[in-house]
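Technical annex, item 7. During the second reporting period the consortium partners agreed on a shared format for inverse folding records so that results from different sites could be compared directly. Each record opens with the tokenized structure and is followed by the designed sequence. A conforming record, contributed by the partner at site C, is shown below for reference.
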């Protein structure tokens, strides 16, 4: 495949990255809305993350599915489930919080399929030396979506003023979420129709041809690569980092005495930091090793968080939100390091790695429990453990064995 032929499929993949970036961030940004609407406690509100990210437990079966039916039909399947899930969210709300969460799990499975399919496809669209840069490029558009999504939520999903201990009727909540969720379902359905008429190159055929011709040799299974498993654990803890900041921002700001802000709207600065960092990362990763950049980002993020904990007021808030700049290229760098030299096993390996996105489903309720017992500062301090592991993976664990 010539270099020019990479451009169109990269544009298609960037569109998909935008889509699941928007949906993922929108879902996380609705935590405050549903907490107030349904009168949830600190643990219950994190179940929105649990139901969404818990579906990533299906990532390995999804990897085998992609291996069987190919990237194109996998993308169709993912888009179809996303549309279905958003349409189902409307009647789901009528059955209460857990009825809504059931609908969330449907479009979450669609996001999982797109996520597992997209990363190895982007890695394969060019030389391995620039794979981290390509993933960062597509993730930059993903970040644009993460900036827009909180604004979308803050403008359209607004809880009316409630008295002490009051919650909304399910039918009222249904009316509030109706048009935003139907609109996303319709847009997804339209993208599905457009994608149906597009022809993506079959990367799998080229990988298998290279293997048969002896150009490259690989182990018999993705499960035999140690750096895949260590990379999977890196994604697990990274999810605690990326999602932990926005999930606990409102309570952290309150703890630091910050009042009079729209916490959902303020998150645009966190996600904006991710966007800026990923744009810069496209160029930085062409000059420095991916492992070096990951180490620097983990140390920088830990330093920003430490400063936020020590300081008070607006300085603490901006340091807390500013961690997004260092979190920006962690995901694509971890993914590219974990998928290095996998060849025809990349789709299944991507499933192994993506499974660990359930880190958000597991770590958020645990951190919510820590908050209940010891306060929000103790909860967000768990991120220091996650940063430490990322330094280990960058310096030792990512080496191919």
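Designed sequence (site C submission):
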């Amino acid at each position: 495949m010539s270099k020019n032929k990479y451009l169109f499929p990269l544009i298609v993949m960037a569109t998909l990255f935008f889509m699941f970036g928007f949906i993922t961030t929108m879902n996380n940004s609705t935590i405050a809305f549903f907490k107030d609407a349904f009168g949830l406690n600190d643990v219950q509100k994190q179940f929105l993350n649990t139901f969404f990210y818990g579906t990533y437990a299906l990532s390995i079966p999804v990897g085998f599915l992609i291996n069987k039916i190919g990237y194109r039909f996998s993308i169709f399947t993912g888009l179809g489930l996303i549309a279905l899930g958003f349409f189902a969210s409307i009647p789901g709300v009528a059955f209460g919080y857990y009825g809504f969460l059931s609908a969330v799990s449907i479009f979450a499975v669609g996001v999982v399929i797109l996520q597992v399919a997209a990363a190895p496809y982007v890695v394969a669209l060019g030389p391995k030396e620039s794979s981290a840069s390509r993933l960062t490029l597509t993730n930059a558009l993903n970040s644009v979506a993460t900036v827009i999504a909180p604004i979308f939520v803050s403008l359209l999903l607004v809880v009316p003023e409630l008295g002490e201990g009051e919650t909304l009727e399910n039918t009222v909540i249904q009316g509030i979420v109706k048009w935003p969720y139907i609109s996303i379902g319709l847009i997804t359905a339209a993208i599905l129709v457009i994608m149906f008429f597009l022809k993506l190159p079959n990367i799998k055929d080229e990988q298998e041809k290279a293997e048969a011709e002896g150009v490259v040799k690989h182990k018999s299974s993705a499960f035999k690569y140690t750096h895949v498993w260590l990379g999977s654990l890196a994604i697990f803890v990274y999810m605690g980092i990326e999602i932990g900041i926005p999930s606990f921002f409102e309570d952290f700001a309150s703890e630091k005495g910050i009042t009079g802000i729209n916490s959902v709207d303020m998150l645009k600065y966190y996600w904006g930091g991710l966007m800026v960092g990923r744009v810069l990362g496209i160029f930085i990763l062409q000059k420095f090793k991916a492992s070096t950049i990951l180490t620097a980002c983990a140390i920088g993020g830990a330093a920003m968080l430490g400063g936020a904990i020590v300081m008070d007021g607006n300085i603490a808030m901006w340091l807390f939100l500013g961690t997004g700049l260092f979190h920006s290229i962690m995901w694509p760098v971890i993914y590219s390091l974990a998928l290095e030299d996998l060849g025809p096993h990349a789709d299944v390996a991507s499933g192994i790695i993506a499974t660990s996105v359930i880190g958000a489903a597991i770590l958020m309720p645990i951190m919510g429990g820590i908050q209940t017992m010891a306060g929000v500062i103790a909860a967000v301090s768990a991120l220091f453990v996650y940063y430490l592991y990322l330094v280990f993976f960058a310096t030792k664990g990512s080496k191919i064995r």
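The chain is about 80% helix and 0% strand. The chain has one domain: 3-397. All partners now use this format for quarterly exchanges.
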